[in-house]
User: Fold NAD(P)-dependent dehydrogenase (Short-subunit alcohol dehydrogenase family) from Cecembia rubra.
Amino acid sequence: MSYTKGMLKEGALRGKTILVTGGGTGLGKSMGLYFLKLGADLVITSRKLDILQETAKEMEKATGGKVLALACDVREIEQVEKMWADAISHFGKVDVVLNNAAGNFISPTERLSTNAFNTVLDIVLKGTSNVTLTAGKSWIKSKHPGVFLNIVTTYAWTGSGYVVPSAAAKAGVLAMTRSLAVEWAKYKIRSNAIAPGPFPTEGAWSRLLPGDLVKKFDPAKKVPVGRVGEHQELANLAAYLVSDFSAYVNGEVITIDGGEWLMGAGEFNNLDMIPQEMWDMMEASRGKKQ
Ligand code: NAP
Assistant:
């Protein structure tokens, strides 16, 4: 079975311009590359212009598509507004915004400085609201339909120790997604979210599983389907959610985690540890009593 095949048909995103924050690396890069393969024009943005330009060149070579690399710190509204204006003046329009940029690291919460806590809130929550407000106001003013797709996490609703600023910020992004799905639908603006489980990226793995933590806490072991995600699997879902095929999907968060968060949530799920022989014994003793 291949998890690395593209799902949508050729040209499914032709005519669309898609802006991906954090699009130079990791999951943003993989989703952006698939959008390009499906015929979209792409804007990738983050702080590091050199990385963005390198990625843009690589993507254009691989697909023959058009990629605009724009430096922008999503925490700074002036930079976001300039980035948006540059994207519009280059491609004439932007149809889709994928809010994917994020910052995160693990720490006991009491060890965090206010500054460290605020930095994560600023990138994830304020960064997403800066980009969302800029794009939304522009779409509403020009009567242009639009699509937001926001990358959250499953602990946006369960919460999680040791990543508390990220959990608080992603919960805020999810609330914003659902709120605007209703409020801005009248402007033909859809808002959805994806909550990915573990998908290996250099960024996430180095910050969340540094050193030999990755061996001690093998993420695949926490996933009922027994593996981590392939980037193409996420890209397939993202491409569907930004495409016109999902025009009736609005205000939804779709989890793609192989069942990871539910495995932690179900009260009796750890009975997986009970060997078959013990189940046989329990069944036999129940049989005797009846
Ligand atoms: P990543 O490669 O580190 O991606 C994060 C991106 O955000 C980088 O490209 C970074 O680029 C950009 N960024 C950080 N601060 C920024 C700022 N102030 N302004 C603009 N851009 C900024 O990690 P990833 O794993 O692909 O994560 C992508 C998304 O998936 C994130 O939203 C993350 O929370 C989510 N996610 C990932 C996983 C996973 O298993 N990988 C699981 C659940 C959710 P610069 O450094 O150039 O700014």
The longest helix spans residues 114-141. The two ends are 45 Å apart (CA to CA). The pocket of NAP is lined by residues 21-22, 24-28, 46-48, 51, 73-75, 100-104, 123, 127, 151, 153, 196, 198-199, 201, 203-204 (CB under 6 Å). The first strand starts at residue 17 and ends at 21.
